[in-house]
Amino acid sequence: MNKQYDVMIAGHLCLDIIPLFPDTGIRDISEILRPGKLVNVENAKISTGGPVSNTGLNMKKLGMNVCFCSCVGDDQFGKIALDMLSHSGNADGIKVLEGKASSYTIVVAPPGIDRIFLHNPGTNDIFCADDLNTDLIKQSRHFHLGYPPLMEKMYTNEGKELAKIFRIAKECGATTSCDMTLPDPASASGKAPWRKILENILPYVDIHVPSIEETFYMLYPEKFLEMKKQHNNAELIDFISPEQYAAIADEILAMGAKMTTLKSGHRGFYIKTASKDKFAGLGAAKPADADNWADRELWSPAYTVEKFGSATGSGDSSIAGLLSGYLKGLTIEQSLKYAVCLGYQNVCVLDAVSGIKDWETSTSMIKAGMPLIDTHIDSQGWKYHDSLTLWAGPGDMLNK
């Protein structure tokens, strides 16, 4: 049965306000932001943010037919967000809630310094299963929801509302995917029982697309915090071994997901998938070649970035690349390349959308063989395949 939409993008939606900081060479945020100091900045980017916007608009740029599902308030921020999305897809699934405040984020991203987000969750905190437009889901091949850790009803009560949403999407016939974000350990979200939440939702999630740090924290919060302490609060991407990646991915697959990524920033994009017999209930967007997608473990290096803009939305963009390749019927190897290509396009600019190219341009960039960051995997059984510019894990078909 033909569907009107390739994908419905649901979940977190906000308005991003991103002031452009000049590069003064300062790399300590405390030297830029001080009490009583006026900080001169340049023009601000105003754009919709969150996965509904970032993943949705970028999939639209890649030629996907997109519809949206979220909530905004009846204020100016909500009107701006709704107007922006209406130009890029069907926004009938976005509810306007009377008397409620829309979500917004001020992104503080000086060059060379990790981003700081000033965020009001607004209507994201009250989004629930009743806000789903099931008619639109039934017209969509795929249902993607992003950022449950930033949406209160999604992580309270052990994620039962989130599980209900994915169960409804599956009942409507869609293939499903879920993206996460790293919770603040000191917040209510950070203290939520994420392992239990994952156990509740993953039987209804076909493609789980979090980052390595997000998943590590959700499965092993105490280990994560101890490791952060050992490494002076640095990002842990460089300190997690391929064996740990595989063990974490295996846990996610055992909970019910059919595929899981572990996005890894400059270290690239990791994916592991279940055996073919687990693909039976995938829904309307089954892979074109199940044998190619089943029982795989691959790791694509990231592209080298000469002029860095901001990592805002880079994970969302890489998901847009992966899902677009998947929905277009590409192989898993090809789809991984679109994931890292869109991540590259994203970090070359300040915001999460303007740097993304169309499908043809992205394809040309991949074929041009842009330089890659050396992921350097020296774990037993991993092998680099030059023709594909990919690493394959010990049990992957490429190594047999």
UniProtKB/TrEMBL annotation:
The keyword Kinase applies. InterPro entries: PfkB_Carbo_kinase, PfkB_dom, Ribokinase-like. Gene3D superfamilies: 3.40.1190.20. SUPFAM superfamilies: Ribokinase-like. It comes from the Bacteria. The keyword Phosphoprotein does not apply. Coiled coil: none annotated. Keywords: Kinase, Transferase. Residues 33-349 form the Carbohydrate kinase PfkB domain. GO terms for molecular function: kinase activity. Signal peptide: none annotated. Belongs to the carbohydrate kinase PfkB family. This is Fructoselysine 6-kinase. The lineage of its organism: Bacteria, Pseudomonadati, Planctomycetota, Phycisphaerae, Sedimentisphaerales.
